[in-house]
Each structure stands twice: as structure tokens, then as C-alpha cells.
């Protein structure tokens, strides 16, 4: 007899398979995700617009999170898995909204990142993204499809760090209640920002991970503080006691699955020299913010790389770094130029619990996009 299908690991190839998994969804119209309890609100942010229509007419489509407050977007008793998250915020800057996710009663979060950065939009500006793990659609609609299994409990919160302005947030968390395989690890994501990067220092994407798991993705918001090309640096994966990395890339654009500075003009002289934005299932340069000649003076880039088909597996520990390197403008023998750029990142990985607490998130002023 065939083993029962848990309803996890969804693909086009198993959509036809029946499962005992139970589909549930949390939104402002059903805060607890209970069966048959959606659309029952009698008050909410839409009540004034639904006056005269009665119950069931879009009474509670969103919530208002006051300045400095933290709101619980959802609590779920397992076993089960989050399969999709959609959200769209209003009123406040995306760096001021901090997303946290906690697994199985662990007191510290396994996910901690500004909302925009988590959804690969770190510069506070919309950029369309068409990938398997993250989609960002018009207008400012954040979606992620990372499967997030848990065994006992999941808690998702959103903090509004703006001291003066409330946030209006719409969201939907689609999940399933089902058996979780013994070998399923827990989803983690960590944000970092260094501005400026100290001279001749590597940028640290991830460090201090202890446990067994696999690294599955990188998002970077890279602000350039020099003229010229900025992406000669190599990414390095140190795991399981490495002194030198086991995996070492050949350049920043190479790691993000591009080539030759993301500039078609470097290989085709008939094409204008310019950065070419792209978004694909596993990698992309979806955002290039160009100087305008006055106050917008710096080039800024958004890049993602999902290790869906090539996860970086580790047994005991993991550290991930990337170099910031440009070129000196010497006439004869060119030399690398270590850069002092404004770099932020989100690392995505799965690992066993317990996991280590993250370093304290920097304050609002340090994270500000300036």
C-alpha cells in the first residue's frame, strides 16, 4: 500500500494526489484560522465602508498597528506547515516593520527581518519579482512560498518601529495541518546591515549558525559609495569547521547568476552600456536605482539568489561572507579596490532546533535608508 501523502512539498507533479492535510488560512477576517469562522467580523477597518450591507461584507480586511506596537499576525498549533504568506503594508516605511517568526515555543525568533527586505525589496521601493520563492507584484504586494514546517506551534508577529505613524497592514497566511516528516528542518531568515563596510573587511551575510541544515537563499540590498563597477567580490561558504571555504564563488554577479557586470554592452558593442534588470525563478537583479544628477546620488541594487536546486548543506555549523571589490583606475596594471559600501542582506536557511539567538537588531536610525 502506498504511503499516505502528507500534502507537503507541493509541485505540479503531485497536485492530483489526495491527502488528509487540512487547509487553513489566517487573515484579518479570521484571526485564528478556524474552520468555518471567516468573514464573521462586525467591526474592523472596513466597517465604515460596509455600513448598510451587514455582516460578511468586508468588515475587517486589515489591521492598524500603532506606533511602537507589536501585533501577532498569527498563532498556529501544529503539526503543520505554512505554505504561502501574502502581505501589503501602508503608511510607514518597510524598514520600520519587523517580521518575526517563532517555532515550537522557542523564546527567540527563527525569522527576524524588516518586511521589505524579507520579501526582497530592501530599498523601500517597489520592484517586480517573479521567482519561485518570492513574488512581488503590483502594487507592493509581497508574497513568499517558502515551505515552513513546524511540529508544535508557530507564532508570527509584526512590529511597527515608527514612533509617530500607525501602520495599516493587510495579510494572509495560508497553511496546512498535517503530519511533518522527522527529517523536516525549520525555516530561518536573518537580516543584517553594515553601513559603511569597513575597509578591507568582508561583508558577513551569516555567522554563528550551529546545527544541521541547508542554506537556501540570499537577498542583498547593495548601495554603492564609489563610481565604477562594484561586484568583483567572491562569496564564500564556510561550514563544518572550515578554515578556508568549501564553496567559493568567482564574482558577485556570477553568484547571482549573471555575468559581465550585468551589462550587455560589455559583450555587445551595439548595445547601450547599462545595467540590465532581470528576474527569474532562482535568481535576479530586479532593482537598479540610478542617480538622478541631484540628490539621488548613489547607485543602489537589489539582488536575490535562491538555492532551491542546489542547497548548501551543513552538518554542524555555517558562515557565509561576500567581498565588496571594485577596480582602481590605474592606467597600466589594474588592481582591485576594496569598497566601503552600504550593504544589507537577508540569509534564508533551514536547520534543526534549538537554534542560537540572533544578534540584537540594530536600532531604527541605523537601519534607515538614507
First-to-last CA distance: 61 Å
Main sheet properties: 11 strands, mixed
Structural class: mainly beta
Order of helices and strands: EEEEEEHEEEEEEEEEEEHEEEEEEEEH
> What is the share of helical residues?
under 10%
CATH uppermost class of the largest domain:
Mainly Beta
Write the layout of secondary structure elements.
Layout: E1 22-26, E2 63-65, E3 70-77, E4 80-90, E5 97-103, E6 111-114, H1 115-118, E7 129-130, E8 134-137, E9 141-144, E10 148-150, E11 153-160, E12 167-177, E13 186-194, E14 203-210, E15 213-223, E16 235-239, E17 247-248, H2 252-255, E18 278-279, E19 283-289, E20 300-306, E21 312-314, E22 317-322, E23 325-327, E24 336-338, E25 342-351, H3 364-367
Parallel strand pairs: 6-13
Antiparallel strand pairs: 1-12, 2-12, 3-11, 4-9, 4-10, 4-12, 5-6, 5-11, 7-8, 8-9, 13-25, 14-22, 15-20, 15-21, 15-25, 16-17, 16-22, 18-19, 19-20, 23-24
Could you characterize the architecture of this molecule?
With 370 residues, the protein is mainly beta. The chain folds into 2 domains: 22-181, Protein of unknown function DUF2961 (Jelly Rolls, Sandwich); 185-356, Sandwich (Jelly Rolls), CATH 2.60.120.1390. It is built from 3 helices and 25 strands. Strands 3, 5, 6, 11, 13, 15, 18, 19, 20, 21 and 25 form an 11-stranded mixed β-sheet that branches. Strands 1, 2, 4, 7, 8, 9, 10 and 12 form an 8-stranded antiparallel β-sheet that branches. A 4-stranded antiparallel β-sheet has the order 14-22-16-17, with no helix packed on it. Strand 5 (97-103) and strand 6 (111-114) form a beta hairpin. The longest helix has 4 residues, at 115-118. It is globular, with a radius of gyration of 22 Å. It starts with 21 loop residues before the first strand and ends with a helix. The model has no long low-confidence stretch (mean pLDDT 95).
